[in-house]
């Protein structure tokens, strides 16, 4: 089976239906539809069905055992595609009797690499509207803003409360708003807890919920001992760059983070390599925004700048000391070039090639 996971309204259903168009004898069933739900409960699709698509199945009680049952007795010609978001991904991480029966593919918002032209105008649009299909393709910024307001309200009032019982609704709402203003900066659980007026462990749990719902992702400092890296202050980024409340430089950094994460997730999902997006930080205050890690080995280090063409000293230090491939990604750059083995790249070009 294939599980397609990702944020709500990122296009999972549209992708599944598009795949179905190319397969004869395909059946699409959505658990949110009462008529479809009855067919699912009774497993009444025809035996010659070649592609069975089950959407929102995780809302069904006992869905894991149900899915295991239909997979174990399915005819050899039948393929199964399952779509879902938070609960499906959380289940995948916990492990269960479905182990060895499925592959996972994470669907991200649009990136520069997916756009037909990938121009500077597209880059600006992604920085303002984010890559979710509806706001990105909206006719105006007002339409995009209206969508986002409803989206955030739906996330908080429906998805979060459905995912876990939250006693202090205001606290998690305030946590989300504060994170929108602290993108790209190391986040202290204690500092956030003081601002929200709750315990640091509560803040940490709220962030874990936001991660599970594909609202935010954290970037921790690289350390070969994963446990030690998790203890250090992470940086928080949003899957939807349009949610970021910050200046142009902060939005650019968030957009680059989403592009790098998407590239690493694709490598992990299609090639089976363990990949992580992390940062580099030393006690001597040497910092680089991102390091792409494959199978616990740092591969590429990336620094993001809005317009500074001078090579970042920390980027130069890590490149020279460890021999890592390095790139400085700059939005406002006239000429791309190599400086002492470090790539100086225009942001639009760099992201288009990921």
Describe this structure as you would to a colleague.
There is one protein chain. The chain is an alpha/beta fold and 354 residues long. It folds into two domains: 2-106, P-loop containing nucleotide triphosphate hydrolases (Rossmann fold, 3-Layer(aba) Sandwich); 112-352, no CATH class. The chain has 14 helices and 13 strands. It has helices at residues 12-21, 34-42, 63-73, 86-94, 120-129, 133-136, 141-163, 169-180, 189-196, 200-212, 226-231, 248-271, 313-322, 347-352; strands at 2-5, 26-30, 51-55, 79-83, 103-106, 216-219, 235-238, 275-281, 287-294, 297-305, 325-330, 337-339, 342-346. Strands 8-9-10-11-13-12 form a six-stranded mixed sheet, with helices on both faces. Helix 9 (189-196) packs across helix 10. The mean pLDDT is 91.
Give a short overview.
The chain is 44% helix and 19% strand. The chain has 354 residues and is an alpha/beta fold.
Order of helices and strands: EHEHEHEHEHHHHHHEHEHEEEHEEEH
Major β-sheet annotation: 6 strands, mixed
Overall number of strands: 13
Low-confidence stretches: none
What is the radius of gyration computed over CA atoms, rounded to a whole number of angstroms?
22 Å
Binned strand content: 15-25%
Q: Which structural class matches the secondary elements?
A: alpha/beta
- Mean pLDDT value: 91
- Number of helical segments? 14
Query: Largest sheet, order of strands side by side?
Result: 8-9-10-11-13-12
How many domains? The number is 2
